[in-house]
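Ticket opened by: R.M.
Priority: normal
Category: complex prediction / small molecule

The reporter submitted a protein together with beta-D-glucopyranose and asked that the result be attached to this ticket for the collaborator who will pick it up next week. Submitted input follows.
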Amino acid sequence: MITHKVILGMALSIVFVSSPSFGSPGTGRHNVKKATAAKSVFGKMADGTTIDLFSLTNAGGTTAKLISYGASLESLSVPDRNGNFNDVVLGFDDLKEYLGEHPYFGATIGRVANRIAKGKFTLGGKEYSLAINNAPNTLHGGKEGFSRKVWKGEIIGGSAGASVRFTYVSPDGEEGYPGTLKATVVYTLTDQNALQIKYTASVDKTTIVNLTNHSYFNLAGSGSILNHVLYLNADKYTPVDSTLIPTGEIAPVRGTPFDFTAATAIGARISQVAGDPGGYDHNFVLNGPAGRLKLAARVSEPTSGRQVEMWTTEPGVQFYSGNFLDGTNKGKQGAIYAKHGGFCLEAQHFPDSVNHANFPSTILRPGSLYRQQTVYKFSTK
Ligand code: BGC
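Result attached by the on-call engineer:
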C-alpha cells in the first residue's frame, strides 16, 4: 500500500512513500525508515529551462539521484559489506559539466544505442542518413541523441518502490530517424537495493529504436575496475571490425578472452583484447529468451564486497571497460576518471542491427509498443 504526502516548498517538493515491505502494522519493525522521493533544482539551461534533480532513497538508505537532462542517473549510493555507503556511478556535481563533452555518463541513450555503420540504413525501401559523430559511424543516437535532451520528469508511486518517470517526444525526422517517437523511462529504487529501469516507446511511422542506460559503475567508488570480477551469462558475442561495427558473425566465447561464463577479473585477460585502445567494448549475446527478464551479468568488487547483478529483457549487453576514459573529465568532488575507472553494462539489441538481417530486429511499427526492462540489483558478499 502506497501513501503520498506532498510538501511543497519554495523550489522543493518532497514525497514520502510508505515502504511496501517495511514498517507495516503488526510486523514489529517500527523503527525502520521509510522510502522517500524528493525533487529539487539541479541547474538551468542557457534558455532558462530548469533541470530537475530527483532523489530516491529507500528504507535501507540507498539513494539514487536522477536528472532530467538526458534522463540520467547522476549518483547511486549503496552500502559495502560493513554498511558504509559510497557512490558507485561516475558523473558530475554540476549541470555545466553534463552540458560539456563527456562519454554519456549515466545517460539514457536513444533513439538507437551503439553504432550504425556509416550512419546509413534502409527502411521500407528508403535510405536514411544520420550524423557521423563517431567517424566513420553514428554512435548512441547521433549528434545530440536522447542523452542531451531535456526530459519531463515526475515522481510517481508504485508497488515496487518510489519511482521517477521521464518522458520525451522526439519529433519526426529528429537526427534523421523517421516517425514521431514517444519515449518513457521509469526508474524505481526498491527496498531490496534494486534500481529498475523500464522503457516504453511508440511511433507513428515505421522506425528503429534501441534504448539503454549508459551508467559507468565502479563498485569500490574510485580507482580501477580491473580487479572487479565479472560473470556474463553469454556463450556468444558479436566480433567487430576496427571501427567497432559487428562483422555479422555470432561467435562462441569459449577459449577466448571474452569468456566470462566463469567469473573472472576484468583485468585478467584484457591485454589480449586487440584494438586501439584495446579492452572490452563488445556486445555479448545473452543466453535465454529475449523479452523475458533474465540474469545478464554479475560483478563483484573484492575490497568493498559490493556486488551488482544485471537483469534484462534485452537480447544483448555491451560490456565496455572504460577504455576511452582518459582523465579529462573532472568528476564528482574532483574525481579523475582515468582509463578503466568505470565499466558499463548496456542492455541492448545488437549494434548495427538494422544492417544485419541475422540480428534481432530493432524495427518498431505504429501500433506496437517497444518495451525494455533492466534491473541492477545490489548486494554484498
Ligand atoms: C561504446 C564505446 C564508447 C562509449 C562512450 C560505449 O557504449 O561502446 O565505444 O566509447 O560508449 O561513448
